[in-house]
Task: structure prediction
Amino acid sequence: MKKVYTCFCTDVIHEGHLNLIHEAKKYGDVIVGVLSDQAMIRFNRFPTVTFEERVEMVRNIEDVSEVIVQNEILYDQVLHEIRPDYVIHGDNWKKGPMKAIRDNVVGALAEYGGIVIDVPYTYNENVKRIDDRIKEKLAMPEYRRRRLRQLIGLCPIVKTIEVHSGLTGLIAEKTVVENNGELDQFDAMWISSLCDSTAKGKPDIELVDMTSRFRTIDDVMEVTTKPIIFDGDTGGLIEHFVYTVRTLERMGVSAIIIEDKTGLKKNSLFGTEVEQTQDTIEHFCEKITAGKKIQLTDDFMIIARIESLILEQGMEDALQRAHAYVKAGADGIMIHSRKTDPAEILEFCDRFRAVNKEIPIVVVPSSFNSITEAELAEHGVNIVIYANQLTRSAFPAMEQTAKDILKYHRAQEVDSRLMPIKQILTLIDEL
Ligand code: SPV
Ligand code: MG
Result:
């Protein structure tokens, strides 16, 4: 009997999957690989049911002879092991980022004469409705809120990008790249105080009030499903902070990061060029504890951000604070630096990890941007935040366009670098 292999990356079995299995059965015994959680989140979406449930679902399909785990998005390893005669898939993988997967399959099968079968991809109203329902489920507060903790457990490092509007939210949600045969995308979103303020033409000094910041979150949530980390600045007065925690938690935000500064907050990347005051350990611990006491779920995280390196207070101070904040209840530590050399960040991470193996570490490599995600992960970092790059790339592009229109007294000269009108009209999906 010939062997036919296919891989499923889904939480729901619909007619498209059943069609595929039906076709596959015509060629031989059907083996289905179920993509692991880790692989699934790199591929297209966060699972809404457990891996075991997904396996069970597939096992229950008539005509499936065997179910195996597929740990990687690319099939080559699995194909080397089971050597199927055929690999069958919907023909939607012939273009877009999924083409890399098909190419990888073609390469692996060519080694022993296996054959790829592309069947017409089933996409109709019913399938679309199922797809939409999964997406809607992922956007619900109770699913979205806990996803950050789940990702920390699943990913070597949680890749987070700044968003400050529905549009930037869509970029974070939908951007998928194929690079060296691997698919990749961002895991989470950061509502930066710098970029949220900048988008409103305001300085980053806690001037944009919480009601407005919540409005930004809402705009982002409307069009995305990925988890949100909120930049809470200093957290403000303890009496106000507890309300902020309640609201964010109810909205479905996963974490707030608060920094140990007091008084008029300025952006950390100014360092000691402007006057900034670090909070006392005692008072900041009180704030963390008050926040932890008020939250209602186990999902929400309060992450303490240490400004000791920014304010040149030294490594010992940073470490002392980290341990104190963890003791006060912090669910994570963010360590910040504005040096271009990542050495002090790495020293902090190594020394903190020597004592504490568990508490997640967050870093924001805006200045020390030569370091890779893999290197950070090796030093125990769990979350990397690209905190301002979308804003910094958009502003010069827009400014240049404005300048050129003024210069040429028409828009023709700028057109070649603009998104085509047809594309901007269809950029946003309608319900
Ligand atoms: C932000 O993005 O607003 C931050 C990170 O707080 S930083 O600008 O580096 O301080
Ligand atoms: Mg900020």
